[in-house]
Amino acid sequence: MVVRFLPADAVADQTAAWARDYHVLAPVREGSAVVYRAYAKDMHPFLGRPPSSSAKEALLPQTENLFTYAYRKDRSDLTRTEVFLSEALPPEPTLILGPRPCDARGAHLLDRVFKERGVADPQYAAHRASALFVTVACEEPENTCFCHWTGGGPMDETGSDVLLFPVTDGFAARAITPAGEKLVAGIPEAPAAVQQELAAKLARAPEPGPAPDLSSLPERFLALFGDMDFWMDQSARCLSCGVCTYLCPTCSCFNITDETSGLAGRRLRTWDTCMSALYTLEGSGHNPRPSRAHRLRNRVGHKFCYHPREFAKLGLLEFSCTGCGRCIKSCPVSVDIRRIVLDVIEAGGKSAANANPEEKP
Amino acid sequence: MDGEKAAVDRMAELRAAVALELPNVDFVLGYGRGFDPLHATPVAVRGEKDLARLIFDPTCVQNLATCLYGLRGKRMGLVVKGCDSRSVIQLLQEKIVERENLVIFGLPCDGVLDMAKVRVAADITRVREVRFEENQVRLLLPGGETVLSRRDVLADKCLRCRYPNPLIHDHMIGAELPAQSAEDTYADIEAFEKLSTQERFDFWKRQMSRCIRCYACRNACPLCVCKHVCLADSREPHWLSSEATLQEKWLFQVMHALHLAGRCTECGECQRSCPMGIPILLLKRKMNRELKDIFNYEAGVSLDAVPPLHTFLMEEDKIKDRGLLW
Q1: Residue A122, Cβ neighbours under 10 Å: how many?
Q2: Which of A80, A99, B136, B231 suits A317 as a labelling partner, its CA being 20 to 30 A distant?
Q3: By C-alpha distance, which of A348, A334, A338, A329 is closest to A150?
Q4: Are residues A224 and A197 in the same domain?
């Protein structure tokens, strides 16, 4: 496969070139954060660290207008009201620059939810079909990284159209998909020195250390489901905020609300978080997940038990987590999902007989 | 900064005090080591075996008083720094927690890290080891050692700290420390207010556009006690929509600042918790400066004080009635 060389000082120009054909989201440094911003003239994309948020926004926008509606009274019969709906416009082709392999893999896991459950979600499918991932491969795992626990890797190609490998003074670019080929067509082929550097890098790919055996996790979780002391202990420090779920590349929950003004309005889909008490609050006032313990249990359970069980039919053990570590890195109280998962395996093994599900997953 | 021996002695003193109180409380909430040497995490000490987990150093950034509201009614111990103790006082003053349920371990503190500043100064994502010295922070990173000036990476609140020693405590652990400054001059607010209205508006538009509406700022605030019945989540009345627009994000921050006027102790948890690095403490400090100017009041320093917005005088010294007559 052709390897191309994108010098570091040509990244801005290349981004501008892509922006002629695509709606480009590129990461920029703003204080302590690295934020995806829509392309603007004189933008300097920053590819040196993983963006603060995942690239999920490009596929599942935090706010999405599903359609607009207007009520109109029938003047000849005022008891009759007609409703007019107009669909939202299809999304522009979007290029996401700077996600990491764990983020691109997140798109693959969102597909499971929005495309592979029998009915494809039309909005999601439209975003997905028009989105291109120009991913930056990782060199060395961060303290919060655990992509190798969940089937990923620092140079994993899943979900990417182009992979950029950091090399001296720039990036070695490799197309992964035909769409990616088109994206890198204008980038010159890499000189021999870069080719050699890349080959050497690939030969000694970063060794993130051994991953624990998580194969018993779904069963161990179920065994521990009713052990509220365990979950209370795990969640004692949790603030019940939405940092972990909103930064997560695979969390897919949303809310649907109508924003009405007079006789017209918009139906919106917005991100929702299972860490909020309101997420499961029922109209009656009853809340099946009344405490942080219940809610944290749900977040862990969804990623490491319910998702793998639902998709076990594919013959693989797949977690709804890419190990990007954002939930650890950005948690105000440093809740570490790796620690919880290991504790589940340990404690769930001890209490395998005590499963007493009080709430169906 | 105390030497290493003093730090060891202090931890021994803290563990001994906690051990002494364990029979009287359900648990003691303190700091333990988090996922790497630069991160601490709250830990509950329930028995002697947990004592070894306790730590205290400039990575102990969280204000543990935030958990008090959720743990109302529990008999518990709490480790506090000087700034954290002000939140406890405010919560006691508002009768949200009960003094007899609390055993307070006060730790004099000479400053905690502002992780946002550390992240800008160095790539800490692979930090292996951290050493705190009198004027420096030594980070062992994969590429070698990086030495940061302590003053450059301490939280702003620490650089102007007037209350390094907890104002309320049952056990004071270690020697008391001198204050960093005698008075808060609100120099940051003064400087910000020199900008034109348009410049300030543009600043906030840019900053707030990063907000992801995760409400970490709200949930990390020790005095934001409405929690999940917050008006930000209310559909009826419909103050805010669920859209992630600038207008909604900004409106929430304004509400937050107004609801904390005269209550906020400037612990900075709102800003520290923000995953997108939005400087929202500035809004609360603005309100506090106004409170200081008008009522000469400061939240969380005296148990007996009556917060000015919890009461009123027929004639306030500094509020003109604009000459209007009934």
Answers
A1: 13
A2: A99
A3: A338
A4: no
Minimum-distance CB partner of A31 among B62, B116, B244: B116
Residues 6+ away with beta carbon under 8 Å from B253? B208, B217, B280, B283
Q: Mind telling me how many Å the CA of B241 is from chain A's nearest CA?
A: 7
Q: Does B63 touch chain A if contact means CB atoms closer than 8 Å?
A: no
User: Rounded distance, CA A297 to CA B19, Å?
Assistant: 31
E strand residue ranges, A43-161:
63-74, 77-87, 94-97, 131-136
Structure letter (DSSP) for residue A191: P
Integer Cα distance of A264 and A275 in angstroms = 32
**What's the distance, CA A352 to chain centroid?**
32
B276 reaches A (C-beta below 8 A): yes
Report chain B residues whose CB lies below 8 A from the CB of A237: 41-43, 67
Of A312 and B14, the structure prediction assigns the larger pLDDT to B14
Tell me if A15 is assigned to some domain: yes
CA distance B310 to B263: 10
Q: For residue A357, is pLDDT > 70? A: no
Q: Which residues have a Cβ under 8 Å from the Cβ of B58 and sit 6 or more positions away?
A: B111, B112, B113, B132, B137, B154
Boundary of a domain, candidates A158, A178, A203: A203
Q: Provide mean pLDDT across the span A270-289.
A: 95
Cα distance from A237 to chain B (closest Cα, Å)? Answer: 6
The widest CA-to-CA distance across chain A, in whole angstroms, is 80
Residue A52 CB coordination number (10 Å)? 23
pTM for this structure?
Answer: 0.94
Q: Is A270 on the interface with B (CB under 8 A)?
A: yes
Torsion (CA) B152, B154, B160, B165 in degrees, nearest 10: -150
* Predicted pLDDT of residue A361: 47
How many structural domains compose chain A?
A: 2
Residue A354 is predicted with a pLDDT of 52
Contacts of A144 in chain B (CB under 8 A): 35-36, 125
Q: Which domain holds residue A194?
A: 4-63+90-203
Angle, CA B39 vertex, CA B35 and CA B40 arms, to 5°: 95
Residue with token string 């949790």: A238
pLDDT at A360: 46
Same domain, A251 and A183: no
Torsion angle in degrees (nearest 10) through CA of A169, A175, A176, A181: 160
pLDDT in tens, A174-221: 999 999 999 999 999 999 999 999 999 888 876 677 899 999 999 999
CB atoms within 10 A of CB B24: 11
Q: Which residues of B touch A62 (CB under 8 A)?
A: 212-213, 244
Contact B67 A237 (CB under 8 A): yes
If asked whether residues A176 and A239 sit together in one domain, one would say no
Q: In this structure, are strands A162-167 and A170-175 parallel, antiparallel, or unpaired?
A: antiparallel
The span from the CA of A22 to the CA of B41, in Å, is: 43
Assembly ipTM: 0.94
Q: At what angle do helices A292-301 and A228-235 cross, to 10 degrees?
A: 90
- Using a CB-CB cut-off of 8 Å, the residues of chain A touching B227 are 240, 277
